[in-house]
């Protein structure tokens, strides 16, 4: 009901009314309210309203009106007052007086646009629910005589402006707390772009006779971040061995990446160890999944090798390989996930406040919240036409977690760095000076 009245008011003002408008509104003929947009029964009167003197002072209980019924959850279902200007059911007190949404909107537009009206009659037109749109001049004068305050509209506008400024300040504060450009820099640092890179496609020899050298495929620059010098992977190794060797290379890059994530190096060394030990498998899986979005049925390792789906199945890791392809690679491809978003998701994985042995869990949780806020702000600014993008990105995290655990069960990354325990490796890397 409120919506139809507001639309009706705006439509009549656009077409014009019996009152002429100076300064932006056009003159026009009188407009009557369509009966199809109104309640079938009219208000019979203001029964039992103490102190009632004129139509300009109507503030009577709406419970005394007959024939008008609103649903229980309707904003007007519990209204106890009538509009002081037109006698319709009031939606509340607006700009100093009880009024309906139509008169409230009319007054607000008049003040904000600084419109001036002229009456074509004797400036004494009847303003009621059915005729309130016939003369804008008399309707506005009645708004003023009933006590509507122009300054209240201006104050409302100022508050709205201040809220908008506060939102901008909040966004700036978020960027300062967790600068998203530094997260992107960390991603680009460990996997720099190249103009065009050749990537070797590995085919599992399984139990077949030796095969010729594997073919070479070309990948788009945005998804292949390896150097031609790295393309020396022997084809006789199985996918698990190749993945483990790639993980060896990636672990070095992973520690370097973490050092460039904002605020990570401010944590105690022991906590940095705990976080990397808890999340390294998910962090590597996220990286090679995103790197593989341009490949069909395969993943691109850090060494430049493409492990194809049939090879993974031949090696006995087909089930988990398929999960990587369907739950991560395909979804990243579908979303067209950018490198900033990948970096934020990986930072969220890194800052895991539930990691066992963490001393500064509260600080880590606060850092994760900052990354959440930075990612949400990035989605809102860069993809305003995709309001659900932030949520879709976060939905990849449970899948990443599940796949990471399953990979460890499959010994997917079991042999990482020879006989060196992963704890000692991470510690030595964290204590080493950062590449600049």
From TrEMBL:
SUPFAM superfamilies referenced in this protein's UniProt entry, alphabetically: Glucocorticoid receptor-like (DNA-binding domain) (SSF57716), Nuclear receptor ligand-binding domain (SSF48508)
Pfam families for this protein: Hormone_recep (PF00104), zf-C4 (PF00105)
Biased amino acid composition, Gly residues: 21-31
Region (Disordered): 1-71, 157-176
Biased composition (Low complexity): 49-67
Subcellular location: Nucleus
InterPro entries: NHR-like_dom_sf (IPR035500), Nucl_hrmn_rcpt_lig-bd (IPR000536), Nuclear_hormone_rcpt_NR2 (IPR050274), Nuclear_hrmn_rcpt (IPR001723), Retinoid-X_rcpt/HNF4 (IPR000003), Znf_hrmn_rcpt (IPR001628), Znf_NHR/GATA (IPR013088)
Family: Belongs to the nuclear hormone receptor family. NR2 subfamily.
Protein name in the entry: Nuclear receptor subfamily 2 group B member 4
Organism of this sequence: Ornithodoros erraticus
Organism classification: Eukaryota, Metazoa, Ecdysozoa, Arthropoda, Chelicerata
């Amino acid at each position: 009901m409120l919506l139809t009245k507001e639309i009706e008011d705006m439509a009549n003002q656009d077409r014009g009314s019996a009152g002429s408008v100076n300064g932006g509104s056009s003159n026009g003929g009188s407009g009557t309210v369509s009966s199809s947009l109104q309640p079938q029964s009219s208000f019979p009167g203001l029964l039992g309203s103490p102190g009632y003197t004129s139509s300009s002072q109507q503030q009577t209980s709406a419970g005394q009106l007959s024939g008008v019924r609103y649903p229980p959850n309707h904003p007007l279902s519990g209204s106890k007052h009538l509009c002081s200007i037109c006698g319709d059911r009031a939606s509340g007190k607006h700009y100093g007086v009880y009024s309906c949404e139509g008169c409230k909107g009319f007054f607000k537009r008049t003040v904000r646009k600084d419109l001036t009206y002229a009456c074509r009659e004797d400036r004494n037109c009847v303003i009621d629910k059915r005729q309130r749109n016939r003369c804008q001049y008399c309707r506005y004068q009645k708004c003023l005589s009933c006590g509507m305050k122009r300054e209240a509209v201006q104050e409302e506008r100022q508050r709205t402006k201040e809220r908008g400024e506060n939102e901008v300040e909040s966004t700036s504060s978020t960027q300062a707390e967790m600068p998203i450009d530094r997260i992107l820099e960390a991603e680009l640092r460990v996997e720099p772009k190249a103009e065009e890179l050749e990537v070797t496609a590995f085919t599992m020899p399984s139990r077949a006779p030796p095969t010729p050298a594997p073919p070479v495929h070309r990948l788009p620059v945005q998804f292949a971040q390896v150097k031609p010098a790295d393309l020396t992977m022997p084809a006789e190794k199985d996918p698990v061995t190749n993945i483990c060797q790639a993980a060896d290379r990636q672990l070095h890059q992973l520690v370097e990446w973490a050092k460039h994530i904002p605020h990570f190096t401010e944590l105690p060394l022991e906590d940095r160890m705990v976080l990397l030990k808890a999340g390294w498998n998910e962090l590597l899986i996220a990286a090679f999944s995103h790197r593989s979005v341009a490949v069909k049925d395969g993943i691109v390792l850090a060494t430049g090798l493409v492990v194809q789906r049939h090879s993974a199945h031949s090696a006995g890791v087909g089930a988990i390989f398929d999960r990587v392809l369907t739950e991560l690679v395909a979804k990243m491809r579908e979303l067209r996930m950018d490198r900033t978003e990948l970096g934020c998701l990986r930072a969220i994985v890194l800052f895991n406040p539930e990691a066992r042995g963490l001393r500064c869990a509260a600080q880590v949780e606060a850092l994760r919240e900052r990354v959440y806020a930075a990612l949400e702000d990035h989605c809102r600014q860069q993809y305003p036409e995709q309001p659900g993008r932030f949520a879709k990105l976060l939905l990849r995290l449970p899948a990443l977690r599940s796949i990471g655990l399953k990979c460890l069960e499959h010994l997917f990354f079991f042999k990482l760095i020879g006989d060196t325990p992963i704890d000692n490796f991470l510690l030595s890397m964290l204590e080493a000076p950062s590449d600049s």
